[in-house]
Amino acid sequence: MTDELAAMIALAKRLVASGIPGTLSTLFSAQGSTYRPLGSMMVSLPGTRAGGVSGGCLEEYVARAGELATRRASAVMLRFNTHPDSDGDAPVLGCGGSIELLVERLTPDHVTLLEQLASALQRDESSLLACVVKRVGQSLLVTREWLRNADARELRSRHATVDADTDVLLQYVPPMIRLLIFGAGDDARPLCDIGSSLGWHVSVADRRARLATRARFPNADAVVAAEWEDAVTALESSPRTAAVLMTHSLEDDARVLSLLSGRSLSYIGALGPAHRLQWLLEEVAAIGARLTDEVRLKVRGPIGLDLGDRSAAGIAVAVAAEILAHLNVRDAQPLHAQADPPAVECHPGVCLVA
């Protein structure tokens, strides 16, 4: 569970328990560019909020306007776009898109919903949550249902219009990402912290009990101090699992790699320069282990994107970024390199963007 979702649940529980009228806002539909994906949520009341539905430009306004609107109705739809209304005080989106926000009066059922969402994020398979909004006269009727055995191959949330009075948001909840860190040295600590901040399930394992401790890795979901056979057996894996070998010992890395050969993994990375990866594969052969072709092709070394920072924290950022790009099937190129450049007309003393 992400820190943001945990904060949303905590705030929602406080508001419901105290009887203070709060709201739950959901990014229901969007056109063009937006800062947040469909399904993003926020729990709020004026002056206090957790979560978010934009890049920060709408949140306080939505908290105020939503609280006022839900005094009269249990749910309302707020719309925002790039251009301001003629005389309204609604903020303007800076990303060039337009969005619809479903804002609901906060109830105990919403606390349950957020807890279910947190539970879904801890599974090794994806989920779909259908949010159906039906217009009945001047009111909105909102129903939600978890879809079982639903087709989630698009790997994204999407909005659809069912008929003139009904719209639906299919919220895609991705499988949990697991990060297995083998080696509990000082350089493993920032990687653990970054993985945890991303909402990944992070496990740290080492046969050296003095290093693999909860005190050194307070943000890890699991810390295992055991011989490698027992450690690998104790750790769960899935097709959304990344394993990083950073024991700083060829023999230990080779032993772990051989034990991982039959596991379901998406990414395997070995810390160190390119020639060390060849030494590692030779060491695996030397201990009499055999790697499947699939595993051999998955092993990466050196690991991480080329960010030019060789500090432990810098390497951790580079490794986490590469894992994210791999799991999301991206090439990790700068976004500006993928965009069409703006048309610029240059005249003496001035440049005009068309």
CATH topology of the largest domain: Rossmann fold
As a whole number of angstroms, the C-alpha radius of gyration is 24 Å
- Count of alpha and pi helical runs: 10
Order of helices and strands: HEEEHEEHEEEEEHEEHEHEHHEHHEE
Task: Report low-confidence residues grouped into runs of 5 or more.
Answer: none
Number of domains: 2
Main sheet strand line-up: 12-11-10-13-14-15
Structural class estimated from helices and strands: alpha/beta
Give a description of the structure:
With 354 residues, the chain is of the alpha/beta class. It has two domains: 125 residues, no CATH class; 150 residues, NAD(P)-binding Rossmann-like Domain (Rossmann fold, 3-Layer(aba) Sandwich), CATH 3.40.50.720. The chain is 30% helix and 28% strand. It has ten helices and 17 strands. Strand 2 and strand 3 form a beta hairpin. Helix 1 packs antiparallel against helix 3, helix 4 packs across helix 9 and helix 6 crosses helix 7. The chain starts with a helix and ends with a strand. The model has no long low-confidence stretch (mean pLDDT 89).
